């Protein structure tokens, strides 16, 4: 009963009493660097997918951007869809690690490490797409403000340039935040292993000893990193949304875009966290640490953001009606009835109707059900980005300028490659680093011990602080 | 327990099994006049910082300096670039403040983060290639440690105070 978290149905046998600090150390670091053929098989599939995507990209560079389906009038297709999708996935990692840290939500403790890793790998995936979309990728440096011989500078009034700043800052700060959190755990791994493994983790831990001076500065730095990551996460997807909202394309030119995109980003990200966490829990036997309690909290977050996203869909239609602009109205009617009605209704079904199941507590606490719902949301959010981007461009002002878009095999191969690229990094992370923050779990266990398990029994393992 | 060399500062390293006993031991040692203490903890330990009388970290100031630097750079870069290559787009002024605020904000965050990380490392005296001889592997698992550095003649007294606080082990360390 008294485990790290409360277990209502008690179906799973857990450790009783609470795991000790040494148990936590051992359980979390057990799978690290242990070879397994299953892992190798899954990783090889991911690497094969990356090779497929890489080959397709190489082919596109060789032949030119014409091998992709994007053309006039739909100049932004699957590549930009995937860029927005992956930046969105990244967001909930920062939400869980930074915002919930500031709110002292204890349930984030066991999730934040993997969620932050997901953030970094998602931004790494997203960052590829502007390059892929460029076609002539060797001109990518034109995006950056550098003192060129001809004194030509980028236009800082363009959201595309702002995006470069937003996404690269987001990647750097997320990486710093993640690494700072990892330092004490790397030291724990150094002390667990011997030989070259100890040397490897020892050098990564920068010689951390956990002395009180180190902790003082560390806690400060971590707090400020959490503090600055919080507004950062809200800014990044806002800037991404302005790539669209600052144009005059009907369906894009709307002030609702920034909050709408941020809510959608957190929605898709939480779904991806659930998908990955179910996998980790299953693969590494982390039932003591990732309990129904944690999944239920994530499910609540998923439900909340699903409602916001559903509301945003409705408001978009209301705004189109209320604008009294026939072009805007036509654009939105066409979205639900025209050539892209399939993606549109998939989007509504996956993002609004399926997550409504989460109103039921039984479903929120059922890990298989959550896994299925999270997959639906992942698909739905991909289609949301697709619908916003493609259906708006395909149906602009003048009928002679209308046109449809179908992804080519190159784009599909790169899509597969992108997912495999993301999972490849996540798999490497899961084998190399602790997927749960050892120091933070121990902190909670220690506090729980001193407070007589009361909170742990009540099902609020984190709220000691 | 071997006797320390004459004239050298001696160190005693004591191991504890919980945060509470470590905190009590720190209080007892400071009460007895031993101020040269080094504490090891496997988890963040605000209680122990308090017991040691540490309240502030200069990381705060560095983060602020980083933020101000970033904000300034974030204004100067787009302004300077726009003035160096003045091209009217969208009918907007050459120096358009609203879009530049995004750059100012992003660089504020970026430099705050970088300054926070590096000032943390500098003040914590990391990176280091070797671990101190008083360090034990258990300090990253589930043990707390107190290293008392004293003059050799006070070592017996320090050991007596330490033993009263219920440590798991007490050892002399070079």
Q: What can you tell me about this protein's structure?
A:
The complex is a heterodimer of chains A (465) and B (174). Chain A is mostly helical and 465 residues long. Helices cover 69% and strands 0% of the residues of chain A. Chain A has 16 helices and no strands. Chain A has helices at residues 21-29, 37-63, 78-102, 112-134, 159-192, 195-204, 212-245, 257-284, 292-322, 326-337, 341-353, 361-364, 367-394, 409-432, 438-450, 454-457. In chain A, helix 8 (257-284) runs antiparallel to helix 13 (367-394). The model of chain A is unreliable at 1-13 and 452-465 (pLDDT under 50). Chain B has helices spanning 19-31, 46-52, 59-84, 97-123, 155-164, and strands spanning 10-16, 37-40, 144-150, 169-173. Chain B is built from five helices and four strands; from the N terminus they run βαβαααβαβ. In chain B, 39% of the residues are buried. Chain B is of the alpha+beta class. Helix content of chain B is 48%, strand content 13%. In chain B, strands 2-3-1-4 form a four-stranded antiparallel β-sheet. Classes of the chains: A mainly alpha (465), B alpha+beta (174).
């Amino acid at each position: 009963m008294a485990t790290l978290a409360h277990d209502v149905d008690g179906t799973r046998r857990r450790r009783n009493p609470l795991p000790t600090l040494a148990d936590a150390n051992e359980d979390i670091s057990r799978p690290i660097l242990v070879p397994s053929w299953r892992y190798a098989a899954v990783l090889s599939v991911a690497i094969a997918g990356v090779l497929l995507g890489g080959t397709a990209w190489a082919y596109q560079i060789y032949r030119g951007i014409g091998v992709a389906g994007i053309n006039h009038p739909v100049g932004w297709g699957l590549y930009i869809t995937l860029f927005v999708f992956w930046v969105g996935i990244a967001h909930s990692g920062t939400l869980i690690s930074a915002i919930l840290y500031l709110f002292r939500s204890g349930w984030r403790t066991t999730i934040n490490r993997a969620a932050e890793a997901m953030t970094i790998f998602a931004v790494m995936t997203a960052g590829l797409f502007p390059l892929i979309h460029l076609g002539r990728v060797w001109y990518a440096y034109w995006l950056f403000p550098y003192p060129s011989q001809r004194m030509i500078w980028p236009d800082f009034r363009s959201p595309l340039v702002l995006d470069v700043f937003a996404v690269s800052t987001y990647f750097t700060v997320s990486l710093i935040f993640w690494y700072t959190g990892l330092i004490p755990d790397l030291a724990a791994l150094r002390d667990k292993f011997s030989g070259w493994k100890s040397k490897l983790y020892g050098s990564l831990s920068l010689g951390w000893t956990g002395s009180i001076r180190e902790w003082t500065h560390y806690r400060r730095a971590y707090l400020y990193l959490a503090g600055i990551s919080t507004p950062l996460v809200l800014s990044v997807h806002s800037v991404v949304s302005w790539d669209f909202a600052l144009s005059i394309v009907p369906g894009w030119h709307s002030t609702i875009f920034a909050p709408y995109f941020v809510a959608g980003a957190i929605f898709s990200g939480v779904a991806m966290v659930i998908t990955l966490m179910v996998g980790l829990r299953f693969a590494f036997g982390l039932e003591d640490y990732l309990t129904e309690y944690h999944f239920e909290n994530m499910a609540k977050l998923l439900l909340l953001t699903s409602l916001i996203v559903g509301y945003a869909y409705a408001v978009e239609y209301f705004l189109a009606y209320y604008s009294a602009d026939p072009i805007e109205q036509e654009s939105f009617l066409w979205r639900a009835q025209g050539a892209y009605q399939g993606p549109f209704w998939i989007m509504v079904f996956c993002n609004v109707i399926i997550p409504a199941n989460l109103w039921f507590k039984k479903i929120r606490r059922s890990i298989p059900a959550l896994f299925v719902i999270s997959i639906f949301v992942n698909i739905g959010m991909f289609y949301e980005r697709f619908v916003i981007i493609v259906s708006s461009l395909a149906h602009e002002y003048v009928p002679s300028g209308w046109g449809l878009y179908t992804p080519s095999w190159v784009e599909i191969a790169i899509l597969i490659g992108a997912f495999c690229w993301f999972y490849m990094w996540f798999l490497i992370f899961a084998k190399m680093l602790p997927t749960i923050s050892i120091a933070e779990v121990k902190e909670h266990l220690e506090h729980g011990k001193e407070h007589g398990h009361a909170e742990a029994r009540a099902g609020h393992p984190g709220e000691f602080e | 327990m071997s006797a320390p060399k004459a004239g050298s500062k001696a160190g005693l390293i004591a191991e504890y099994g919980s945060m509470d006993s470590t905190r009590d031991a720190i209080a007892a040692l400071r009460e007895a006049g031993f101020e040269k203490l080094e504490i090891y903890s496997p988890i963040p330990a605000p209680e122990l910082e308090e017991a040691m009388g540490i309240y502030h970290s200069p990381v705060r100031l560095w983060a602020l300096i980083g933020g101000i630097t970033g904000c300034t750079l974030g204004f100067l870069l787009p302004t300077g670039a726009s003035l160096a290559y003045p091209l009217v787009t969208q009918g907007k002024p050459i120096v358009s403040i609203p879009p530049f605020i995004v750059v100012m904000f992003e660089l504020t965050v970026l430099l705050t983060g970088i300054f926070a990380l590096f000032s943390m490392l500098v003040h914590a005296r990391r990176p280091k290639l070797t671990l101190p001889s008083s360090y034990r592997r258990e300090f990253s698992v589930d043990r707390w440690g107190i290293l008392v550095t004293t003059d050799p003649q006070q070592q017996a007294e320090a050991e007596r105070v330490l033993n009263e606080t219920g440590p798991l082990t007490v050892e002399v360390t070079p």
